[in-house]
Amino acid sequence: MEKNLTTGSVFKTILYFALPYLFSYFLQTLYGMADLFIIGQFNGTESTTAVANGSQVMHMLTVMIVGLAMGSTVIIGRAVGARHKDEIAKTVGNSVTLFMGLSIVLTIVLLLLVRPIVLLIQTPVEAIEGSIRYLTICFIGIPFITAYNIIASICRGMGDSKSPMYFIAIACAANIALDYVFMGVLHLGAAGAALGTTLAQTLSVIISLLMTKKQKLGIKLCKQDFIPSRAVLGEILKIGIPVAIQDGCIQIAFIIITVIANSRGLNDAAAVGIVEKVISALFIVPSSMLATVSALAAQNIGAGKHDRASKTLKYAILITFTYGIIVAIIGELITAGIVGIFTKDAAVVVLGSQYLRGYIVDCALAGIHFCFSGYFCAYGKSYIGFIHNMIAIICLRVPGSYLASKFFADTLFPMGLAAPAGSMLSVIICVGAFVWMKKHGRLGDSQIQDAS
Known about the structure:
By secondary structure, this protein is an all-alpha fold. The protein has helices spanning about 10-40, 45-80, 85-110, 115-120, 130-140, 140-155, 160-185, 190-215, 230-260, 265-280, 285-300, 305-335, 335-340, 345-360, 360-380, 385-405, 415-440, 445-450.
């Protein structure tokens, strides 16, 4: 399972690692979009809004878990690059202990708070009960969502991006089949969408554990590796917590924007919910590049190859920016067709098209700061990603959406523009931080000494 990523062509190595991850992310996004698409075929706007709002909450939780797991990916990647087998084993064992304990606590707390959460995001009255049913079932499945993501983070830290792709492919296929059974045949509405998602994720985890055991990790784990170590957990959390908070804040910003849309009425709420799902799908390349840069750069940093880490960043930015420009141009031409896939309501299609036209430009800009965030994370400076995202959210994204909603009551287009405006600010901060840190020797051998 272990794959050394510190030799050979940097560009080819990026493609080797990124393509399976990209496909994994696409499947994971499709996994979520399937719920929204299928419920739109069998139920009305109320159920669509319930699933859209509920899935926003679940997506926030998932990305925070993934962000926290980035600490495991980076520490394992450095150890692989440095060929420290004992450190790999200890990090894997402590990661499992940490995340399984966390998942149990999250499940209990969130089940107790499900109704307040639904009310907090100002879900339209017609969709409240559906959202509660959806989230209750999904919260029960949190241990399985966590298990999949920690297995995936361990694999990627060891240079294996293919295994997680197989695991999520199984979950995606199962989810689509179960959605048609629960929503199309049994007519369970939003609860059926949640059941399909949770059961598919459970199946994926069971199969991933069996496959991982069969393939073997390339390391030998013992009971002592699972005993919490303050030093190991400290390193994981030092990197993972800023990423998790950053990703959580981004999703909170999305939820605040959803609240703003919810206050405008059911059609606006459904339109924004649909577009957020579309954007998640379009961001597969930027998101895959963030994980790719962090994993590849971490291994090269561990091996002392800082030039390869910098080249990884450069090629990743080139790839994701080119992709973003192409997607933005095509998206501007077919926005109505894209939104129309998810709803038959003409008013929702019009509003969704307006929002998407403003938002889609972000595909080109977000990828740049995603790549920088992955690079900084590999050096143990994940706080930079947290800082630039918080500044963008507080200064532009949320206030921009709110003001646009108030001053442009008849269109969602200006609300959509708040996202690329925030990303532009993030790019400026990232470039400035990169130049300053390179000039002052903060991204080289001295950084590894500090991190150790």
